Amino acid sequence: MTETMRSRRLAAGLLLALPALAMAHTGSDAGLHHEAHDAAGALAAGFAHPFTGLDHLAAMVALGVWSAMTARRAWLAPLAFAGTLLVGALLGLAGVTLPAVEPMIAASLLVLGLLLAANARLPAAAGALMAAGFALFHGLAHGAELAGPTAAFALIGMVTATALLHGAGIGIGLLLRSRAAWLPRVAGAAVALFGIALLVN
Questions:
Q1: Would residue 148 be called left, alpha or beta, if left means φ above 0 and alpha means ψ between -120 and 50 degrees?
Q2: Which residue, 6, 118, 163, 179, has most beta carbons within 10 Å?
Q3: Which of 49, 55, 70 is nearest to 19 (CA)?
Q4: Residue 123 three-state SS
Q5: 34-75: pLDDT as tens digits
Q6: What is the pTM of this model?
Q7: Do 103 and 55 form a contact (C-beta atoms < 8 A)?
């Protein structure tokens, strides 16, 4: 088996796993990353958080895949997301609240899933603005859970993991863009259905 075929199969496997992970979300991650009492523990817990918060994981990977599939500057919308996620988390940590945080997180999955399923293109600025808007609510949800003197380390870990998930999504999208473009569309449809399920619950 060639290296290219191995890469394709790995990307396809990761992408196919995304909807299954998303549908398994139960919210069981809540609070895990603010229980650590030292910097290293908080950093590790913050890094793990996006992987255990499956709504966040699905949104981050879907955004990366969609950007790679449709945008010339695939990094722009993910960068806007990661930066605004940090801002939102800091606001949440400071006690700032907005209404409908959870519905907006669910809406982000619905919209990103539909964009990916339709292979829809947006102007670069519009895509970045959309990503930033959704990231604000994701960040508020994270920041509201943080507490204690090690919160900054948890934030560093969380933003680092977010960037890596975006990068993984971009890599998968670039790999499949000209080889199996139908696969991201199927995954996008599943992510959109997950968003609907969260909205109606």
A1: left
A2: 163
A3: 55
A4: coil
A5: 455 688 999 998 899 889 888 999 999 999 999 999 999 999
A6: 0.81
A7: no
